[in-house]
Amino acid sequence: MSKPLDDVDRRIIDQLQEEGRRPFTQIARDLGVSEAGVRQRVASLTERGVIQIVAATSPIALGMIQAFISVRLSGAGLEQASERIAAIPEVDYVAVCTGPTDLLVGAVCRDNQHLLEVVTIGIRQVPGVVETDTAVVLSELKDSYRFSEAVRSDAAATE
Predict the structure, then answer these.
(1) What is the per-residue pLDDT across 8-19, written as a single tens digit (0 to 9) for each?
(2) What angle do CA 39, 22, 40 make, to 5 degrees?
(3) Taking a C-beta distance cutoff of 8 angstroms, is the pair 104, 95 a contact?
(4) Could you tell me whether strands 91-96 and 103-109 are parallel, antiparallel, or unpaired per DSSP bridges?
(5) Which residues pair with 71 in a beta bridge?
(6) Over the stretch 67-122, which tens digit does the pLDDT of each residue have?
(7) Does residue 51 share a domain with residue 69?
(8) What is the model's pTM?
(9) Residue 7: CB partners within 8 Å, gap ≥ 6?
(10) Which of 13, 66, 117, 149 is least crowded, fewest Cβ atoms below 10 Å from its Cβ?
(11) Which CATH number goes with the domain that contains 27?
């Protein structure tokens, strides 16, 4: 079971989501806690996989193609298939799903031909893959890395 976030953790995350390069000294000052405390909490949140501090890019703004591929599998090879698909260099997201699809896969490609190769030569050749359905992103309307209201309201209810 994962350790729940407390109010200080959530406030640190809020500050980093606002500005990922914000100095720990400034976060500590804004929250009224020690810099060492902020540093330790950020290290713990990072080690636990709760946060990642990265430069997020927009494939569309870079003129690339972003696609989401629904993958249906046969048999019991979910773990092996998902690992093989995750190893494809163009794949940047793999999630196990419920419903008519087993995996949702995100990929970034140079152009349509490159996407075709990733799907037909890469994903469809993985043992156990029986069907794919590809959706190309035409325009992003929202791409948020902020806490959703559901997370905030759930956190407030547990305090």
Answers:
(1) 998 999 899 888
(2) 5
(3) yes
(4) antiparallel
(5) 103, 132
(6) 999 999 997 789 999 999 999 999 999 999 999 999 999 999 999 999 999 999 99
(7) no
(8) 0.75
(9) 159
(10) 149
(11) 1.10.10.10
Point out which residues pair with 109 in neighbouring strands: 65
φ/ψ of residue 154, rounded to 5: -65, -40
Helix, strand or coil, per DSSP, at residue 132: strand
Dump the DSSP string for 63-76.
Answer: T-EEEEEEEEE-TT
CB-based contact 8:40 (threshold 8 Å): no
CATH code, domain carrying 121: 3.30.70.920
Q: Looking at the structure, do residues 125 and 69 belong to the same domain, yes or no?
A: yes
3-state secondary structure of 47: helix
Residues in Cβ contact with 72 at an 8 Å cutoff, skipping those fewer than 6 apart: 100, 101, 102, 129, 130, 131, 132
Domain extent at residue 19: 7-55
The secondary structure of residue 126, as a DSSP letter, is S
What are the Cα distances from residue 80, in Å, to 20, 65, 106, 124?
A: 34, 27, 18, 14
